[in-house]
Amino acid sequence: MTKLWIDLESYCEVPLRNGTHIYAESVEITLFAWAIDEGPVSVVDIANGEQLPKAVTDAMADDEVEVWAHNTGFDRTVLRHVMPKLCPPLHRWRDTLVQALCHSLPGGLDKLSDILKLGDQAKDKEGRDLVLLFCRPRPAGSKVIRATRDTHPVEWAKFKTYAGRDIDAMRAAHRKLPIWNYQGAELALWQLDQTINDRGVCVDLELARCAVDAVAKAQKVLAARTFELTNEEVSSATKRNALLKHLLAEYGVDLPDLQKSTLERRIDDENLPVALRELLAIRLQASTTSTSKYKTLLRAASSDGRLRGTLQFNGASRTGRWAGRLVQLQNLPRPVLKQAIIDAGIDALKADCADLVFSNVMELTSSAIRGAIVAPPGKKLIVSDLSNIEGRCAAWLAGEQWKLDAFRAFDQGKGHDLYKLAYAKAFGIRPEDVTKDQRQVGKVLELFMQYEGGVGAFLIGAASYNIDLDDMAEKAHPSIPQRILNEANSALAYAKKMRRSTFGLSDRTWIVCDSLKRMWREAHPGISSMWGELGDQVRAAILHPGVTRECRMLKIRRDGAWLRIRLPSGRALCYPSPQVENGKITYMGVNQYSRKWARLSTYGGKLFENICQGVARDVMAHNMPLIEQAHHAIH
């Protein structure tokens, strides 16, 4: 099929970081670069009156022509606003950025150029300075408000050359990229994803504005009280270094940091002076960051009051899950207030009297953020969730039959919630007696132990779900069999002998965490055995290219520079440039801390985590088109 390659350069006074859709409402297209198949690249100078040639307009109108761009979420949205009659329908668009993400590569064209070694066809890295010059308003104090061909003729000529080279880089990247995960059902799913992003969600802008105003007012009150409590030494509790210095000098309290977990532990100490505890409480309130989401909502919402472009298809490239953009709707804070109180708080915020009714306005606005996503008039907002989906996937993939039976019984109303069951087994109580907070401990056991987690995994889980590990250890210790405790004691002695980290935990807490790990593994022989089996088959596949290996429901194969793990859906998890080094499995990927392309290591449990999350994603993805076909619009 014929391919039309396009790349747009544009100018807008609205920052692109506010979101493509609000940006596109007032955007101007300045340059339109294009090419057909492998033909020559042309750049149309729209800003200076040039018209698109007939070859482009004909290709745009031809239903047999695919339209390719890098990040079509930008190019297609801009075209829909500026040249709506020219913009092709969604089913004809293709995206090299998404093609890269679908195969576990970064989406940036400059990074792709380096990774794929495009050479002369690589993206022009110097073009970034030209984009800053011509695509944004000039900084305050500049001689000109806007840079153009008239003000910067030499740079404009270079800018046109740069725009054309992006087409070369896109075409070269497309030729080198696999297509396994960007065709058929996955391609159709991406097109549905674009429809969902275009559709957006309705936002209660009044609530957002009132919440921002209430937070600003509360911050002033907190700052004034901080100034008073510190004898006018610290102007605001958000001044981290100044506050730490004051706490040490005035109270002799040397805190390692001012993180939420650190402050909450110290606030509960009744021996601390009242003024000190109040200071720590003020810091907790003042540093609440979730309220900043309201400001992002206000900046990013389109003129019709809808928030768009919040999802990135395959944004979590290792598993294929969606990633959040702009407001991060997938990562909204968990409400700490009951719904009836939140509803009353929203009314108070809109009436500008929240500070009169609530002692902690920050807590209120953080709990109320979900209320900013609303149904439009005449519609209902239906929210659904997949219950313990990763636990179900893990049991299914590993053939853990007793657990599948337990899930089935729970679904039929004849059994217990699996998180409650996990807690009850570990702590020796009845599942029906497990509280909501205790269920969170059971959730940590299930989520982190099923991926070969050890004692360190408990620290991650405790931080994620606000669990006191020392308190947990005290409650769990009496119910642990002596045989397990003996094994954990021996493991701790060995860890100390080898000078391995014990994560700063007390011996008792470390032993209980290690014991719970051992008990969980004994109860899950299918899952526990799969970690080693999976690691062995992946090593064998890497060392023997071209041979398909099987691991229960999975097929594993290396071809050239790619290791693929084929999921039951037919989609593959991709690991570029795999190697086995001294028995360790490594591959190339984006380091989650440095954000750089680097060699990463993995193991059986981590691979199993990728697979379970990938299968969970596929379960949701399978049902999305069915939901749309049933005339329920996904947002």
Topology:
Elements: E1 2-11, H1 20-24, E2 28-36, E3 42-45, H2 54-61, E4 65-69, H3 72-82, E5 93-95, H4 96-101, H5 109-115, H6 127-134, H7 153-176, H8 184-199, E6 201-203, H9 205-229, H10 240-251, H11 260-267, H12 274-286, H13 292-300, E7 306-307, E8 311-316, E9 321-324, H14 339-350, H15 354-357, H16 361-368, E10 373-374, H17 389-398, H18 401-411, H19 418-427, H20 436-449, H21 455-465, H22 469-476, H23 482-497, H24 507-523, H25 525-543, E11 549-551, E12 554-559, E13 562-566, E14 572-576, E15 579-581, E16 584-590, E17 597-602, H26 604-629
Parallel strand pairs: 1-4, 4-5
Antiparallel strand pairs: 1-2, 2-3, 6-7, 6-10, 8-9, 11-12, 12-13, 13-14, 15-16, 16-17
**What is the overall pLDDT average?**
92
Sheet with the most strands: spatial strand order: 3-2-1-4-5
Number of helical regions? 26
Structure classification? alpha+beta
**Poorly predicted runs of 5 or more residues:** none
- Helix percent reads 40-55%
Gyration radius, in Å: 28 Å
What portion of the residues fall into strands of 2 or more residues? 5-15%
| DSSP summary, beta strand count | 17
